[in-house]
Amino acid sequence: MKLDQVRKTSLERMFHPRSVAVVGVSTSGDGFGSGIVTALETIGFEGKIYAVNPKGGEFRGSKIYQNPDEIPEPIDFAIIAVPAGHVPAVLEECRLKGAAGVEILSSGFSELGTTQGIRLEREIKEICSRGIRVVGPNCFGIYCPKSGLTLLPGPELSRVSGTVGFLSQSGGMSVDFAHIGKWMGVGFSKVVSFGNGADLRETEMLAYFEEDAETRIIAMYIEGIQDGGAFFSALKQVAREKPVILYKGGLSEAGGRAVETHTASMGGSAAIWESALRQCGVIQVTDLWEMAETCLAFSMLPERAYENITVAGGGGALGVCACDTAAQYGFRIPVLDPGLSEAILEYLPQPGSSAKNPIDAANPFVEPRAYREILLNAAKDDRIDLQILVQLMYHYKSLASGMGGVSLKDIVPYREMAAIASEVASVTGKPLMLVLPNIMQGKESLDIEEILREARKAFLDAGIPVFSDIRSCLRSLAHVSRFHARKKNETKKS
């Protein structure tokens, strides 16, 4: 489906409003309305914020208007956080004020399954038909780093824009994903929690993300859909050009029951969904973490299919596991040319190392300069498309203890290693992925956790995607590779 200019303009005013009215702000600071005002101020929303409550008064020194019509300038967007019974009247007031759209945080609608809740949601739809767009009800709203709009409990979210657009039927899932993205390295263009989806929901927002220049990757959490034919038609069209990563909730019997009370949706048959998504070229994931890791890989890796890889670092058993896992996901770890193996072996500790591929360092303390030569030489094999580096930095804990308890920050060379990884990827033209496991997660190992977090950030800043284990790394790479292989094949056919 294509969006006309009127719809596009309305959505742009919602994502990038110059002024926002928040209806339901309490003078005491309690409740969702006051909370979202605080969140908007904390994250640094760049427009004007007007608090509204029929009782009037002040909130932290600013006037509370008794209704939207009292606001002294036009508003682009409104956030409604009042009891469900008052929502239709407030929505109509916002429409008459000229707002392009609103988000309704309030619950108490069709998700309850009651006559009153269903009636109230029907009233919302009727008002929408007169010329205003609605996100919700029963949602956490919109997060747009560029403008500073944030989800209901999200004042700590990043203001750095990225290329991932996320559409979620669940508010909790939306804010969790946004928080994960902040430290994992996934940047967002927009996040929309649409809840019950009385107006704006999966199909129309998918069409918007297709045309949105700021969105290169589309992720979705869906519980139920309104028009299956339109949705799958849109999915097929969008997935030809942009990766669509979809997590479908409620595919089990128990999960289906849960989504009925969550957003008044139907879960559906797992077999039917999997078949339909596969036919549409959609990347189906099974949990929030796989979705985040897949978005990370898509956002940081060159757009191409991958076949042959090297795995360097770690230990012998990790190399064996890497080979087995690579085969499961359709990758090959070819034995390197003997001449290259000999050159690499010069930089590996002896005895115990192997340079055939996987490249087993047999020692977690190999210097970054040695890895530079190892990776540069391995990349000379014309068959290799991508390299994976495994770093067991948690072993530095024992090294620090043996050195009289020096700080891990003084001996873990993660900054130098990140710089070298970035250099190797740039010089060779072959991307590099980092696997950074941590098996020491007890209370006594908090210093390891700290150094690993700093290392992750250093590698991400250097343009290297980071994963916690080899399986998630290869699984994400497989999603990227299959998408671009399919896209290339479809281009050839056309």
Give a brief outline of the structure.
With 494 residues, the chain is α/β, with parallel strands linked by helices.
What's the N-to-C terminus distance?
21 Å
Strand % is: 5-15%
Radius of gyration: 26 Å
Which structural category fits the helices and strands?
alpha/beta
CATH topology of the largest domain: Rossmann fold
Return residue spans where pLDDT drops below 50 for at least 5 consecutive residues.
none
What's the total helix number?
A: 18
Q: Going by CATH, what is the homologous superfamily of the largest domain?
A: Succinyl-CoA synthetase domains
Query: So what's the CATH class of the largest domain?
Result: Alpha Beta
Mean pLDDT: 94
**How is the largest sheet built, in terms of strand order?**
3-4-2-1-5-6-7
CATH architecture of the largest domain: 3-Layer(aba) Sandwich
Record field, number of beta strands: 17
Structure notes:
There is one protein chain. With 494 residues, the chain is α/β, with parallel strands linked by helices. Helices cover 44% and strands 15% of the residues. The strands form three sheets. The chain has a seven-stranded mixed beta sheet with strand order 3-4-2-1-5-6-7, sandwiched between helices. Helix 3 packs parallel to helix 4.
